[in-house]
Amino acid sequence: MMNPRTVQKIAFFSLFLSTLLIVVPVGMIVVIIVQKGLPAITWQFLTDVPRQGMRAGGIFPAIVGTLYLVLGAVAFALPIGLLAAIYLSEYARDNVMNRIVKLAIVNLAGVPSVVYGLFGLAMFVVWCRFGASILSGALTLGIMILPIIITASREALEAVPQTFREVSLSLGASKWQTIRHIVLPNAIPGIITGTILGIGRAAGETAPILFTVAAFYLPRLPKSIFDQAMALPYHLYVISTQVPNVDEKVRYGTAFVLLAMVLTVNLVAIVIRYKFRKQKKW
Amino acid sequence: MRKFKEFIIEKLILICGSASIFFVALIFVFLLKEGLSLFKTVRLGAFLFGKSWYPISEPAELGILPLILGSLLVTAGAAVISVPIGVGCAVYIAEIAPGKVKEVLKGGIELLAAIPSVVLGFIGMVTLVPWVKNIFHLPTGLTALSGSIMLAFMAMPTIVSIAEDALYSVPRSYKEGAFALGATHWQTIWRVLLPAASSGILAAVMLGIGRVIGETMAVMMITGNSAVIPHTILAPVRTLTATVAAEMGEAVVGSEHYFALFAVGIVLFVISFAINVTADLFLHRERR
Lengths: 282, 288
What we know:
The complex is a heterodimer.
Chain A: H1 4-37, H2 43-47, E1 50-51, E2 56-57, H3 60-91, H4 96-110, H5 113-127, H6 134-158, H7 162-170, H8 175-204, H9 207-210, H10 232-242, H11 248-279
Antiparallel strand pairs in A: 1-2
Chain B: H1 2-17, H2 19-35, H3 44-49, E1 53-54, E2 61-62, H4 65-96, H5 99-114, H6 117-135, H7 144-168, H8 172-180, H9 185-196, H10 198-214, H11 217-222, H12 240-247, H13 256-287
Antiparallel strand pairs in B: 1-2
């Protein structure tokens, strides 16, 4: 029988080691991409269309395509998600229905991304006849980020103290007036954080847009929401697996832009959350 | 007028409240609508347990056993790597790390969760795949093992954050009681905290595994994509998800191949549904 102190030392050391095993590779991934990707970033790379079969030129259409998709997804998911969160936090009672709604949210969050792609293809592209278009892709991504927005908004709404509501109601405000003027304003930072996290997720996903919108090679900007578009994550997939002899610089540059976009978005969300927590008055 | 406006808004809230149920049902219905057409021509048994997947030969062979085994192999490998490391890290963050370090580590884990899978796939291709090839002297580094390692990293954020929550929600008095009986910190963690948080940790592991089974891009980029039954973890494999992602682009809408890929989608949906419902039950038990 070993001394409990020695056992503890060994155990804690292995726990520390497993933490390092996660943190160090994450750091390495970021460092590698920044180190090799940053030199590839020039004004021309960011603002030019791809040239020579995507082996040269820039990634402008992919950046624009991703922006359109993200905007479309949020425009669709935010109103529905916010109202759903209001329902869960302000209206739902603790009953079976409520439980099923929560279970549905968990499941929606757990559906594999490629299944979202299949669904988008069957429903929006084929059944609604939108074709492979920004509209189909944005709707697919919108449904995918819905659970993120609902969960974050619900938490933000539920964090508003019950007394705020009681005071408002006792002053004669209606339920909706209370929600609109008292609960919502106090929950805004949390809702914004959730929305931003959704944006980050939508910007980085590839599988849902594979068959709903993504154009392999389209060296121009999309003309309408019924147009196909290039998108950054799909572009990175294409130039790293489908097109031979792409300059390493172009690949790392694309990976860098995508990673920078997603991480910036996430960082903004974390900062907002942090500031809000510090300012919280209750 | 104001009453009317509020009436409309409250009805809208009610409708949106059930939106998530509606969308889950919608996804399932559309998968069924396209996927079930396959079974007019192919028997369910032949689809699930058929040993060969040659969707474009004449006649097509649509057995997904190699794909299921591919998914299982990659997932099992990822679980073996990510579960001990992930739970270990969760314990470290919840119990041992000092305040500041804790925040930094949590940020790091969140960072990992935010990295798009296609970026991880790309990094895997340029770093991990050559390593695996050289270390094991293989003709190609695009193997199930490479996929497992990369997917382990995608499962870890889920495992760490949920397991940490579970540890965090163990009542303080348990810990104080163990300390008062003279247990060391580690004895307390091992004999008291971990058992008390076990159902939450189990849920964490399940959700992590669910994430791995559903992962698509990274796995498609680094597992070699060969749809044969794998005999070792050092062989190239093809998973269910990668098959759909790789082949749907070429499948003609309304063809047998198209229906078969939707049937694969049904299988994936059912697996993820089962995992999420079970994990939710465990988490629910935790709270009571």
